[in-house]
Specification:
Layout: H1 2-11, E1 22-23, E2 34-36, E3 43-45, E4 50-52, H2 58-75, E5 80-82, E6 90-95, E7 105-110, E8 113-118, H3 121-134, E9 142-144, E10 147-151, E11 157-163, H4 171-183, E12 188-192, E13 194-195, E14 198-199, H5 208-211, E15 215-216, E16 233-234, H6 239-251, E17 255-262, H7 267-272, H8 301-317, E18 322-326, H9 333-337, H10 339-348, H11 360-376, E19 380-384, E20 397-400, H12 404-412, E21 417-419, H13 422-425, H14 430-433, H15 439-445, H16 456-459, E22 462-467, H17 477-484, H18 487-496, H19 502-518, E23 531-537, E24 542-548, E25 555-558, E26 569-570, E27 575-577, E28 581-587, E29 597-601, E30 611-613, E31 645-648, E32 652-673, E33 679-680, E34 684-690, E35 697-703, E36 714-735, E37 752-760
Parallel strand pairs: 1-9, 4-5, 4-6, 6-8, 11-12, 11-22, 12-17, 17-18, 18-19, 19-20, 20-21, 21-22, 33-37
Antiparallel strand pairs: 2-10, 3-9, 7-8, 7-10, 13-14, 15-16, 23-24, 24-27, 25-26, 25-28, 28-29, 30-32, 31-37, 32-36, 32-37, 34-35, 34-36
Length: 761
């Protein structure tokens, strides 16, 4: 406890106005590989300290200026920058290309001065970031303990993605985003510039792309109704602004990878140039989200030329070796009906094959044409993992988003790979963003991009790792920052470090979040809340609860519905529950008090009973197994927690062993609805009974109306009452939506059914 308080104390600001001495620490994120703290005199950072760089080295001159600004932000000291290495009290920046890798650095702190050496200017910059994050937030001189730090990154690609197609972000915010990346030692900015909902990059040869394609009539309401708000929306970056951002990123040793998503996700382009689509339009810039049937007409030579013209201007603007061309979520429906596309299919002799239609060759053909065009300019393409479906060379880099196995398969096929699986690294997922306590951070931190179980040759193809921020539901820059911070710190560590320790990582968040505060960043504070862990004990027929708080801070709790205080019970060991109650818990520790955690534990006759499912839920949504449905815990609207079981194309068919013959007259089932993610409600509910668990007789059933466009998202409770019966076994069947309507983004496909508590009364 004292260690945590001391660590916090080192990081708080002292605004007395007088000269003060704070003490630096080296508890930074990402954690350096080698750190030795000799028992020697410290260095005192003060106003007369100078920052020196080699004469004529423009890159290190710029880095020296940034370091001066960083020190001023943290300590209020404005250090001068010089090429003069004479005299003492210097922070020396230098290159050491012989003993350090390009992005590696060495920082030596001695009483006489500090030296930061790098294998390149980028390596020096990362050393500067470590120095910056080590500084206390004080107002005056700083004592810096003697240290020898040697460090280098694990992966070459350490990336963050930003989608500006769904919602547009200003130049100022993009620069702030790059600053946040630089703070966390990230070096690749994946800029998603075009979408169905907006074209955001000026292309001189096709002015209508921004005149028409950058504007939509309205945006989607956030009430789950799929209706628009009636307010026109738009925005784009001029080529001059793009060059400005590319330079700003380069000054921070960040490479900008542009993405022009094609041949799908092109509604904005088709609205501007309808002749590029299979039907000829008219088309609108979309305001709904999802996957749309209208895509580029690959059988039209004008579409191929259009794509090459766009990429030509893009490559003139972006010096990056990699150009991202998307290649994901491209339906073949229009191609099957298009005369031009079918003529190309016939001329190429493509036929339907098992598991692969002739039309799928059109996408491979299109992407191969783009690959050859980009390669001819000395560049390489990156695409989402759908591009693996055939026809590309091993020069193509695959961005594995659907799952990590797609990345491993690509690496096994000699493709370079960037890991960005949706289940771990999509920061915009609202469910993952709101996981309790440290669970959201842990989800990112414990992802392993290149596990040791893979062969060395496969691991060598994994370039790195990246988080993605899609902007469908990000209406403000504050929301964007909130979704990124502090989980970007977890990304930083898995991208930089070979060895990880989550508990140790959490302690290093304290000084980093203090810096977030100083920089006025908006960030999640979940990690400092109470983290609960529930376990069902079917043998003793109860529910066990363990609580955790970062830094072993004191947790107080109540079970009577009242708010906890320092006079209520203090948590010391796991708690057990056999009756319903409203449980509340909170860290109460002066100014370090957490937000209130509360849980309504609702125990019914089915709670903690042995249960079996006829069909397993979807592999991504299995909760803690079938018992999740009868654990006394109701899921929230966040379907990504382990409270929900998700089914698609199957019924939820649950058998409950009540352990003894019981009198029952009602079954209540909760479902979660989130229509824009194809999560729809129940359409029918059935209850069956049995004395032996094998032969069941139907007790009751009811049909439930299918949801419409205007129905709300959220929790739906379905209750089926019936004449009281005596039984030991109950079978509860809940049917989902078998055929989504035309108004959805997935017409004529089954919807997800998410079920949580099945309560018996």
């Amino acid at each position: 406890m004292k260690k945590i308080i001391l660590l916090i104390g080192l990081c708080v600001a002292v605004f007395s106005g007088a000269k003060a001495i704070g003490t630096a620490h080296y508890n930074v994120i990402p954690k350096p590989r080698v750190m030795v703290l000799p028992d020697a005199s410290p260095f005192t950072l003060k106003a007369t300290t100078r920052i020196s760089y080699p004469d004529g080295d423009a890159d290190l001159q710029r880095v020296a200026g940034m370091l001066s600004d960083y020190i001023n932000q943290s300590c209020g000291l404005q250090l001068s920058v010089t090429t003069d290495k004479r005299g003492g009290h210097l922070i020396k920046l230098r290159r050491d290309t012989k003993s350090l890798p390009a992005e590696g650095y060495r920082m030596t702190v001695e009483s006489s001065g500090i030296t930061i050496s790098g294998g390149s200017a980028a390596g020096v910059f990362y050393g500067v970031q470590t120095l910056r994050k080590s500084l206390p937030l004080a107002n005056g001189e700083v004592s810096m303990p003697a240290a020898n730090i040697i460090d280098r990154p694990r992966f070459a690609w350490r990336g963050m993605h930003l989608d500006v197609g769904r919602h547009f972000f200003s130049v100022e915010f993009v620069k702030k985003y790059l600053d946040i990346m630089a703070l966390h030692n990230l070096n690749t900015f994946h800029w998603h510039l075009t979408e169905d909902q907006g074209w955001r990059i000026e292309i001189k040869k096709y002015p209508l792309l921004t005149q028409v394609g950058s504007k939509r009539k309205q945006s989607l309401l956030e009430d789950g109704s799929e209706n628009g708000d009636g307010t026109p929306y738009g925005g784009y970056y001029t080529q001059e602004q793009i060059r400005e951002i590319v330079k700003y990123a380069a000054d921070r040793f960040i490479t900008v990878i542009p993405e022009i998503d094609m041949p799908g996700h092109m509604m904005a382009a088709l609205a501007a140039y309808p002749e590029l689509g299979c039907t000829g339009g008219p088309y609108d810039v979309e305001y709904h989200y999802g996957v749309f049937k209208d895509v580029l007409c690959v059988g039209n030579p004008k579409s191929i030329q259009f794509a090459k013209d766009v990429l030509s201007e893009v490559m003139d603007l972006f010096p990056s070796h990699y150009i991202h061309i998307g290649g994901d979520e491209c339906p073949r429906d229009r191609w099957k009906e298009c005369e031009k596309c079918q003529n190309l299919v016939k001329s190429m002799g493509w036929k339907d094959e098992p598991g692969r239609s002739a039309e799928s060759r059109l996408q491979s053909y299109f992407l191969s044409e783009m690959e050859k065009f980009v390669n001819a300019r000395g560049r390489s393409i990156v695409g989402w993992d759908e591009i693996m479906e055939g026809g590309l060379t091993d020069k193509v880099t695959v961005m594995a988003w659907q799952n990590e196995m797609r990345g491993i398969q690509a690496a096994q096929q000699n493709h370079d790979v960037v890991m960005t699986p949706i289940a771990y690294l999509y920061l915009s997922n609202r469910g993952y963003a709101e996981l309790e306590g440290t669970k959201g951070l842990r989800r990112v931190y414990e992802f392993e991009p290149a596990p040791d179980t893979l062969s060395e040759s496969v691991r060598n193809h994994i370039l790195g790792v990246q988080c993605c921020l899609w902007s469908e539901h990000i209406l403000t820059t504050e929301r964007a920052e909130y979704l990124v911070l502090p989980r970007i710190a977890a990304l930083s560590e898995i991208a930089w470090c070979d060895r990880k320790n989550f508990d140790n990582f959490l302690t290093r968040l304290y000084p980093l979040t203090a810096l977030y505060d100083r920089l006025h960043y908006t960030y999640q504070r979940h990690a400092f809340d109470v983290t609960p862990t529930f376990t069902v004990d079917s043998v003793h027929h109860n529910l066990a609860l363990s609580l955790f708080a970062l830094g072993n801070r004191p947790i107080y709790y109540t079970t009577d519905g009242n708010n906890p205080s320092s006079y209520t019970s203090i948590y010391k060991q796991p708690l057990t529950f056999v009756k319903s109650c409203l449980f509340k818990a909170q860290v109460i520790n002066g100014s370090d008090t957490s937000r209130l955690y509360k849980e309504n534990i609702e125990i019914s006759k089915s709670s903690f009973c042995p249960v079996t499912l006829k069909d397993a839920p979807h592999q991504k949504y299995q909760g803690h197994g079938a018992i999740t449905l009868c654990d006394g815990l109701r899921g929230t609207t966040n379907y990504n927690t382990d409270r929900w079981l998700g089914f698609i194309g199957k019924d939820m068919d649950l058998t409950i062993d009540l352990r003894s013959v019981q009198q029952v007259s009602s079954v209540v089932v909760s479902t979660d609805v989130y229509k824009s993610d194809a999560i729809f409600g129940a359409t029918k509910m059935e209850v069956w009974s049995s004395d032996n668990g094998k032969d069941f007789t139907q007790v009751a059933e009811k049909n439930i109306p299918e949801l419409t466009r205007d129905d709300r998202n959220g929790l739906y409770e379905h209750r089926l009452d019936f004449t009281s019966i005596q039984t030991r076994y109950l079978r509860v069947v809940v049917k989902g939506t078998p055929d989504l309507g035309e108004w959805t983004a997935w017409p004529h496909t089954p919807g997800f059914l998410f079920v949580d508590e099945v309560s018996v009364f």
